[in-house]
Amino acid sequence: MANQANLYSFPAVDALAPALRAYVISCQEAGLARHGVFKVAVSGGSLPKTLAQALIAEPSSPADTVKWDKWEIFFADERAVPLDDADSNYGLLKTELLDKLPAGTPPPTVHPISADPEVLADTQELSDQYEQTLVRSFAGRDSVRLPIFDLLLLGCGPDGHTCSLFPGHELLRETDAWVAPINDSPKPPLSRVTLTLPVITHAVRVAFVATGGGKKDIMKEIFEEESGLPCALVNSLCGDRCSWFVDNAAVEGISYPRRPFSL
Ligand SMILES: O=C1O[C@H](COP(=O)(O)O)[C@@H](O)[C@H](O)[C@H]1O
């Protein structure tokens, strides 16, 4: 299974969470060694809740510490809604995770995708502005072809979409932009912005989290068929830089080999 995506399966989320934590902390330490900060982008959907379960726990040792003040948090995708809207991925991360950090935790730096109502109405402008945010953080586009995130934490929709990249959508062929708008999302809301496939597959590490029996049909397509689904494209382009943290229910009946989790 050299250079193929790692599939780590756990009986339930309770067992998945500590492994996910260990993995994120190892990516954090690698990022800190590389450039003194940890640059991570996160998805919305079911991910923030599982992430909170993984990360908001007392460290079991100094090496198990989440160094929040060293984190720069970006968004893998966002819906074109105000940040306090129930559909906002930023809003979700805030409610599920950021607001639950213990009092006195030195806060991470968070880069939401715009709060300006005028910009929200123009998704091209919204993505251009977020791309500029990335340019400022990752150096100018003149000096880097693509930003290199230390880690992307992604979800997998029941149709195999990830970020706001949907099956068969023309955005999957984007080769230039770092961030792109979508105004015909098959899943509401219609208007969103997303990191593009070249940015996703350029990250140092990519981790998917997928749980529950509702994901098992699409997981079979992703791992066992030539589906061309967005999640499958990430798998084939990232190889073993990509790891899946799933519960047994999500991979029931799938023969793709699971790996015992280790760092
Ligand atoms: O719309 C979205 O859905 C995906 C998958 O969500 P899930 O609830 O099935 O985990 C999510 O990763 C993405 O960020 C979000 O915008």
From TrEMBL:
Pathway: Carbohydrate degradation; pentose phosphate pathway; D-ribulose 5-phosphate from D-glucose 6-phosphate (oxidative stage): step 2/3. Residues 14-236 form the Glucosamine/galactosamine-6-phosphate isomerase domain. Belongs to the glucosamine/galactosamine-6-phosphate isomerase family. 6-phosphogluconolactonase subfamily. It catalyses: 6-phospho-D-glucono-1,5-lactone + H2O = 6-phospho-D-gluconate + H(+). It comes from Parathielavia hyrcaniae. This is 6-phosphogluconolactonase. One of its GO terms (molecular function) is 6-phosphogluconolactonase activity. Hydrolysis of 6-phosphogluconolactone to 6-phosphogluconate. Its EC number is 3.1.1.31. One of its GO terms (biological process) is pentose-phosphate shunt. InterPro entries: 6-phosphogluconolactonase_DevB, 6PGL, Glc/Gal-6P_isomerase, NagB/RpiA_transferase-like. It comes from the Eukaryota. NCBIfam families: pgl. It is an enzyme of class 3 (hydrolase). Keywords: Hydrolase. CDD domains: 6PGL.
